[in-house]
Specification:
Length: 99
């Protein structure tokens, strides 16, 4: 960068409108962040209301063992098949990478 170009850059940065534009951009950013925080607070209040309502509802009892067995039969799934699927080791091929 030559001396003339450096001088023109300094002149632009010293122009009175540069700080004004920076201040306007900062104010816009801060107002936007404040609005986001307000929306997020309202969203969290809605979620808290839903959680509180769900906590007041009576718990749903689990089905009896006989009902669960009938359901398993209807799905043609035995308990041993479910257990074997859960205990089956799974592997994922990993490619060697050089960093």
């Amino acid at each position: 960068m030559s001396g003339l170009e450096a001088a023109s850059v300094r002149d632009v940065l010293r122009a009175p409108w540069v700080p004004v534009l920076a201040a306007i951009a900062a104010v816009a950013l801060f107002v936007s962040a404040g609005n986001w925080q307000g929306r997020r607070m309202a969203e969290k209040e809605r979620l808290r209301t839903q959680l509180d309502a769900a906590a007041r509802v009576a718990p749903v009892p689990l089905p009896s063992l006989a009902t669960a067995a009938k359901l398993a039969q209807a799905l043609e799934v035995t308990l041993t098949e479910l257990i074997s699927q859960c205990e089956r080791p799974t592997s994922m091929p990993v490619k060697a990478r050089r960093f």
